[in-house]
Design a protein that fits this description.
single chain, 251 residues, alpha/beta, Rossmann fold, seven-stranded parallel beta sheet, two-stranded parallel ribbon, globular, binds NADP nicotinamide-adenine-dinucleotide phosphate
């Protein structure tokens, strides 16, 4: 599908992956609304980059733990662009808590992770569904993690939230067919992101040693796969792992 002239809403456009996804979509001719919470400078940089590519851009501040804020942001985006064809659920929050330290995973942390990473994407999909359906060729792409497929990540809450997001992908693919396709990218460690840089060296190097390509995911690979899912007319309900080839993830 030719994406030129269409409109996308990319959550977390102030972050590393969200900025790259926004720019890849803009390169494909898409106008982009992007959300941020605290990083207004990052959002402004992404807006500038999209405009430099000749496309329209809008940054909206929204804490996606708040259902009312999601509805308000949706209205703002629709008012500005008149339509929304694509939703990229990229925003997420995490905190490092070793799996074995169950007591450190408080109910507050659990709720913050699940509300941001799982309930938020559902509420965004629900709010945008009428607009995604309107022209018969809507797209949702969710950014999960291999932590949602295998019990390894920054915390049990993060893994559970991403596992939920993967299954939400399949449920929404059924719910929104045939007008909207819903797919998911599950990255491993993404080189060059602040999230990856926060990992202790021994952990990051352990991952690089394990993957058969000797390097893990790149930001560009994630962004291009999002564009590919948006272009495709016959893929829905799918999860694509991008991780440099962890043998355990090859199935
Ligand atoms: N980096 C990796 O190695 C890696 C690996 C696997 C999966 N992923 C996934 O890839 C996606 C992007 O990661 P990234 O590395 O680009 O992360 P990032 O740079 O930390 O960006 C995260 C984004 O989420 C936004 N956000 C956080 N809490 C939010 C909330 N309550 N409401 C709305 N937005 C919120 C942040 O907004 P502000 O900054 O404006 O506050 C930011 O724009 C995430 O879904 C992550 O789980 C990343």
């Amino acid at each position: 599908m030719d994406l030129a002239g269409r409109v996308a809403f990319v959550t977390g456009g102030s972050g590393d992956v969200g900025a790259a996804v926004s720019q890849s979509l803009a390169t494909a001719g898409v106008d982009v609304a992007l959300s941020y919470v605290g990083n207004a400078d990052g959002a402004a940089k992404t807006v500038d980059a999209i405009q430099a590519l000749g496309r329209r851009a809008l940054a909206v501040q929204v804490d996606q733990r708040d259902p009312a804020a999601i509805d308000a942001a949706t209205r703002q985006v629709v008012e500005r662009f008149g339509r929304v064809d694509m939703l990229v659920n990229n925003a997420a929050w995490n905190i490092g808590i070793p799996f074995k330290n169950l007591d450190a995973l408080t109910s507050d942390v659990w709720d913050r992770v699940l509300e941001t990473n799982l309930r938020g994407p559902f509420l965004l999909a629900r709010a945008l569904a009428p607009h995604l359906r309107e022209h018969g060729c809507g797209r949702i792409v969710n950014i999960a993690s291999i932590g949602g497929l295998y019990p390894t990540s920054s915390s049990i809450a993060y893994s559970a939230s991403k596992a939920g997001l993967i299954h939400l992908t399949r449920c929404l693919a059924v719910a929104l067919a045939p007008e909207v396709t819903v797919n998911c990218v599950a990255p491993g460690l993404i080189e060059g992101t602040r999230m990856a840089q926060r990992l202790p060296d021994e952990v990051a190097n352990g991952v690089r040693d394990k993957v058969v390509l000797g390097r893990t995911a790149s930001i560009a690979d994630i962004a291009e796969q999002v564009v590919t899912f948006c272009r495709s007319e016959s893929i829905t309900g799918q999860v694509l792992v991008i991780d440099g080839g962890e043998p355990g993830c090859m199935r």
